[in-house]
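Our platform keeps sequence and structure together, in a single record for each protein. Such a record has a labelled line for the sequence and another for the backbone structure tokens. Nothing more is needed to write down the fold, since each code stands for a local backbone conformation. For reference, a complete record is included directly beneath this paragraph:
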Amino acid sequence: MNTQQIFRDKTDKIVKLWVEAVINCYPDRSRPALSSNMDPFTNPVGGMIREAAQGLVLAISGADIQIEQIKKSIERLIKIRAVQALSPGEAIGIIYLFKPILRAEILPQMNKPSSFSEYLDIESRLDTLAMMAFDLYVRDREVLADIRIKEIRNQYAELKRWAQNLNSNAPLGTFTGCGN
């Protein structure tokens, strides 16, 4: 049996197991809401996890898909992980939750010695996807940092304008806080 056929037979199970593994990374109080419904409108995070799982499984399997399609399938999930209070390892580590699943579901199906190199290719594709996810994560964190910097600058400018108005409206000979 070739790799594509093995993945066709196991895709639904792999997606389900990975989605469960990712949801189990969230705090106990969040898990029921995330796992109850994968509809992208009523449960956007759960829907994004499932969407990312399907795209990642396609990419890991070696299916002929465009790099932009792969990026798109994980980009939204990584954006959410970038704004959450997670370390980079926690944010990106969910990609590696595929490894034990692949070893349990795919590796036993590849029972020929020559198939082992094909399996190693699968794990290499997973490593490449993790690096792609890390690049997306860093980009998203940079965007957040830029937004925060702009927000601080705007607050400073507003505070400065307020202070200038306060000083310009003060009567002569009044204490202005400038060490008179």
Notes: The mean pLDDT is 88. The chain is about 70% helix and 0% strand. The longest helix spans residues 115-168. The CA atoms of residues 16 and 84 lie 23 Å apart.
